Amino acid sequence: MAKLTIHPDKIQSKINSEIYGHFSEHLGRCIYGGLYVGEDSPIENVNGMRTDVVEALKEIRVPVLRWPGGCFADEYHWKDGIGPKENRKKMINTHWGGVVEDNSFGTHEFFELCRQLGCKTYINGNLGSGTVQEMSEWVEYMTFEGVSPMADLRAKNGHEEPWHVDYFGVGNENWGCGGNMNPDFYANEYRRYQTYVRDYKAGSHIEKICCGANVDDYEWTKEVLKTCFNHSPEALHGFMDGLSLHYYVHPEGWEIKGSATQFDDAVWYKTMSKALFMDELIRRHGAIMDVYDPDKKIGMIVDEWGTWYTVEPGTNPGFLYQQNTMRDALVAAITLNIFNKHSDRVKMANLAQIVNVLQAVLLTDGDKMIKTPTYHVFNMYKYHQDSMLLDSSIETELIGVDDTYQVPNLSESVSLDKDGVMHITVANLSTDTAYPVEADLGRFAGTQISAQILTGEIHDMNTFEAPETVHVQDFDGVAKTQDGVSFTIPASSVIHIAVK
Ligand code: AHR
Which residues form a coiled coil (predicted)? Predict the structure, then answer.
């Protein structure tokens, strides 16, 4: 029996809803065909946005959306994507699949999508190949309220009112596709570019995100923070609100990656082990951030995370289209538990990517759409958004097929929402063993229990032919005990229990 100990009186930190954020890039069928089909499409849409996709995304309460990239961001020139569509520049998307980008989805369309989703906006600017003036004018175009060349241009293009930019990324992966910069060079560029990401509207602040490290490049974190803050430590807040981190799980390494659907138990545990590495990354990058920012005012922004496999057979290798199984559901569940537990430092995270790319929550094929196992995890975990993390721990044992990739059998996190409801999420990483769990809820007064489960054989997935193979079910296996509740979690499963 695994004991889950919860201290309802020990509130740790607020779980920012943005931890459940998403990422959309001009890549493959993420934007075109996935989110946006255009006003004239026979696929049901509102102002060009797919109705089925928007409705599904509203259900999981997408809190924030990052756009337009990714690597695409540092090649994107925003003026190509405004004005009458027939006049917009056509170009080749050199990064992703060599297809024609007709710029029919641009700034206005992005804000319209976020309006329909009811989510916050995260724009990623171009530092790698764009100018300071270009970045500065984009911010002016989006947010300036008075009379100015860019505000006038926005009005001429049909949007009199300024929009609200919640987050602005000053470059993306500038250690790689965003310009191959050294950390001190980037940090100085960051200092310069961010100066012109102005808060035009009184009382409103654009949170500025500095490009952080690739995986475990701790030198990048150290150097960027050193260069940024040596010269103006007093300007800490406002100068940098967030520092990003990118980490993808490639089960068989960057070169081979591995199939999304065909894997054995050994690869399953390898995938889990690599997903759990997120915890070490947050701790170690966080320790460096603590040196410069002991009060944790700067958020760690994990704005790209998820599984990255070999593309589905027969699809464009540059489109990064992959299927999604119970393995992805488990990766999502344990990663979100990790983010919850580090919500004192992690202020936003964006799954890569929202539709049809990498670990997508939705897949589309023409007018058809399916929800992936990962989608269902986000749906079960949405109750953690803006709730308070509670101190909790669970007894675990190490499991795996051999000594190489041993992982703890269980993962959990617990929060208390604003209505006083306790939300417990537990994941069982085993391919074949169920575990009984006894949860001690401390002095928590709640007595009404409801629970849901996502469970299946490790390879289970949803397809366009069988869209409901993996779905959330009510779980009636939770029993009240003297100190709390007990239940048995089946192999390869994720459970959400609400107690009020
Ligand atoms: O998400 C796909 C790509 O991965 C992004 O464009 C880039 O930032 C990262 O390398």
Answer: none
Per-residue confidence band for 201, with pLDDT thresholds at 50, 70 and 90 = confident
**Any atom of ligand 1 within 6 Å of the Cβ of 430:** no
Burial of 66 (0-12, 13-18, 19+ CB in 10 A): buried
C-alpha to C-alpha distance for 427 and 334, rounded to whole angstroms: 7
> Taking Cα atoms as reference points, which of 386, 458, 372, 373 lies closest to residue 417?
386
Q: How far apart are CA 81 and CA 79, in angstroms?
A: 5
Q: Ligand 1: distance of its center to the CA of 71 in Å?
A: 6
The reported pTM is 0.97
Residues known to be catalytic: 173, 304
Give Cβ neighbours of residue 224 (< 8 Å, ≥ 6 apart).
Answer: 183, 184, 186, 187, 190, 210, 211, 212, 243
CA-CA-CA-CA dihedral for 235, 237, 241, 243, to nearest 10:
50
- Check residue 263 and give its pLDDT: 97
Ligand 1 centre to CA of 294 (Å) is: 30
- Residue at 176: amino acid letter: G
Q: How far apart are the first and last CA of the chain?
A: 24
Q: Which residue pairs from 252-256 have beta carbons closer than 8 angstroms and sit at least 24 positions apart in sequence?
A: 256/310
Would you give the DSSP letter of residue 90? P
For 53, 75, 140, 142, 216, the CA distances from 105, given in Å and listed in that order, are 16, 15, 19, 15, 34
Nearest CA to ligand 1 atom 7: 70
CA 70 to ligand 1 centroid distance, Å? 5
Express each pLDDT in 5-63 by its tens digit. Answer: 999 999 999 999 999 999 999 999 999 999 999 999 999 999 999 999 999 999 999 99
Q: Would you say the CB of residue 113 lies under 6 angstroms from ligand 1? A: no
Ligand 1 contacts CB of residue 304 (under 6 A)? yes
Rounded to whole angstroms, the Cα distance separating 108 from 156 reads 12
> Are 359 and 352 spatial neighbours (Cβ–Cβ below 8 Å)?
yes
How many Å apart are CA 206 and CA 208, to the nearest integer?
6
